[in-house]
Specification:
The chain has 428 residues and is an alpha+beta fold. Helix content is 21%, strand content 31%. The protein contains 10 helices and 19 strands. The structure holds zinc ion.
Length: 428
């Protein structure tokens, strides 16, 4: 029997251990956690009543006050009470002040101790590309690659794209079916997948056959970089193409057959943007307010005079922004008022006009550079970062080389495809 037993154990050793045969072990939880969400009228102290003594409450609240005021806790604040499993004595409390900050209170032999815990974040990179079938908003929000992002975060991405391309392409008027986009986006995400912050590293938009690029560059490394094209020229221009954020313009839920712009500038010398009443209206360029008041047809309207003889007009506003008066100096993107339907307007929309030397012009025809190019002393670093970011764009599945680079390569040596396309047949 002894020999048999030895044999059996020797056989066991020669086989990999089978974990599945181990008896289940019951491990009691290290603590019991009860999670509460503060209702209106409920206080932190009220939540602790009956859980700990009044003396302990005072000690706990004192420790909490080192980081935040118990009287200023928002409705919906999540509070986790952590108990010892054996006697259900309170051992700790976590208060999630914001999605990024939690105050952790721990019971110590001599009272309560508090510490601030930052929610851990991870940084990853998103790559997305697509072709526009209806409108840009649909193309980005419904991109399956981005489906793991929350709806809000996908909308945030569109805002980022709009901010980067707002001087080059008016997403509400100029996007065409067949246009393509691709971008590389760096995000900071929390363990629950929500996005804390993000920034576009590189983006390409091919609009009606023209490729626009925006490459992020931060020469000082202070997080306040900006965007440049492939030649190192700033993407900034003297005028925003539109006075509203793209996402606020009422076109995105509809297909391309319904055009968001009620009339073209040619027919009534202005552009109408349909948007919800109350939507922010931005000054499209730096300037001085020369008119602010009510006209019978324009309703509440503002005119701004800009350098080089330009004037812009914003009409049918519901209200002016506080502090905006005749003589106010405004900067590009400053909010000057809010969309409404005052004057001759059938519904809430912004009527926007641009004049030069007293004559109406199409805002899309103005292309004045404004931002500085990459400084000469930063050119070397720019060159290195540019090639890294362009390489990132080119890794996106389904996309080819960045177009301008192709053109450059072609001028040096014709590709096979080009040679094959030489119209020898046509000459015969
Ligand atoms: Zn109009």
């Amino acid at each position: 029997m002894v020999a048999g037993a030895t044999l059996a154990s020797a056989a066991c050793v020669s086989e990999p251990p089978d974990v599945g045969r181990l008896a289940r072990v019951h491990v009691p939880p290290a603590e019991i956690v009860r999670i509460y969400s503060l209702n209106s009228g409920q206080t932190f102290g009220g939540l602790l009543n009956g859980v700990i003594s009044a003396n302990e409450q005072a000690s706990l609240l004192m420790a909490f006050r080192e980081h935040a005021s118990p009287r200023r806790m928002r409705q919906g604040t999540e509070i986790s009470l952590r108990f010892f499993p054996r006697d259900e004595d309170l051992r700790g409390v976590d208060i999630a002040l914001t999605p990024d900050e939690t105050v952790r209170l721990s019971r110590e032999p001599l009272g309560w101790r508090s510490e601030m815990i930052q929610t851990p974040i991870f940084v990853d990179t998103l790559y997305a590309s697509g072709e526009i079938e209806t409108v840009l908003w649909n193309a980005v929000v419904r991109n399956p690659v981005l489906s793991e992002l929350t709806f809000e975060d996908r909308n945030g991405l569109i805002d980022h794209l709009d901010q980067v391309f707002q001087w080059q392409v008016d997403f509400s008027r100029q996007i065409r079916v067949g246009d393509t986009y691709r971008f590389v986006f760096e995000r900071e995400a929390r363990p629950d997948g929500s996005m804390r912050a993000g920034k576009l590293l590189a983006a390409e938009l091919v609009n009606s056959g023209t490729a626009y690029h925006a490459i992020y560059f931060d020469p000082n490394g202070d997080g306040r970089g900006s965007y440049f094209d492939l030649e190192g020229e700033s993407v900034r221009r003297a005028f925003l193409l539109k006075p509203l954020a793209y996402r606020r313009i009422s076109s995105r839920f509809t297909n391309s057959r319904f055009h968001p712009i009620l009339q073209t500038w040619r027919s009534h010398r202005g552009i109408d943007y349909a948007a919800d009443a109350g939507t922010d209206i931005m000054a499209t360029s730096d300037g001085v307010v020369i008119h602010r008041g009510f006209d019978s047809s324009y309703g509440n309207s503002i005119q701004i005079r800009h350098p080089n003889g330009f004037v812009t007009r914003y009409a049918h506003m519901r209200a002016f922004r506080n502090g905006i008066v005749v003589g106010s100096r405004v900067k590009q993107s400053d909010v000057i008022g809010y969309v409404g339907s005052t004057g001759l307007a059938t519904g809430p929309h912004l009527h926007y006009e641009m004049l030069r030397g007293g004559r109406h012009i199409d805002p899309l025809s103005v292309d004045l550079p404004a931002g500085d190019p990459v400084p000469s002393e930063d050119r070397l670093r720019w060159g290195n970062e540019l090639s890294v970011r362009v390489a990132l764009l080119e890794t996106i599945p389904g996309a080819g080389p960045v177009r301008d680079f192709v053109a450059q390569a072609r001028s040096e040596s014709p590709t096979d495809a080009e040679q094959a396309a030489t119209p020898t047949g046509g000459l015969q």
